Request: fold
Amino acid sequence: SQQGEEDPQALSIQEGENATMNCSYKTSINNLQWYRQNSGRGLVHLILIRSNEREKHSGRLRVTLDTSKKSSSLLITASRAADTASYFCATDAWDNYGQNFVFGPGTRLSVLP
Amino acid sequence: SQTIHQWPATLVQPVGSPLSLECTVEGTSNPNLYWYRQAAGRGLQLLFYSVGIGQISSEVPQNLSASRPQDRQFILSSKKLLLSDSGFYLCAWSVKGNTIYFGEGSWLTVV
Reply:
């Protein structure tokens, strides 16, 4: 099963409202990252939070991490129509070969004008 | 600054034909390199990743293969495409332990 799983799968809000997306994971991590993807495009990195951090801000984005619950949340404040996109969390995973990154299925955010 | 180039951006291939998607990274040395596939409206599935030249880890048994002939070049190939190979393929790189960065992706339609 996937390491990171976001919820909700889809979220529709009005412009100006806040959007909150959650991510849960199963195993220990070194860091967790959030990405944005516009339809048909590559993923754009938003923010990285390390396992020893609890909260991080970047502009209108706020990310929290609770390692005891193995969960993270992404809050977008004062949303805009341009925030419409899919949002993914990714956790690092290690095996005998090296490090890779596991992505959840994503949350599709629609911000209505 | 680092950049990643992935091509072609789109391609339509008949079933049974070969495939070659290429990815190059500039501005960094010895990156980890990754190939992901994304089905329509879905998350990303890790296909291959590489920690060095000639070192490839295959994550999912499939009709595809990957090669890393040079430090900053990663190639995704198939000898005979299947309909199920259709999807959005993303190349990515990271410096160990840090952020993973993506190319713009390649849309593959197998007909």
Remarks:
- Chain A has no helices and eleven strands.
- Chain A touches chain B through 27 residues (CB under 8 Å).
- The two ends of chain A are 36 Å apart (CA to CA).
- The longest strand of chain A covers residues 85-94.
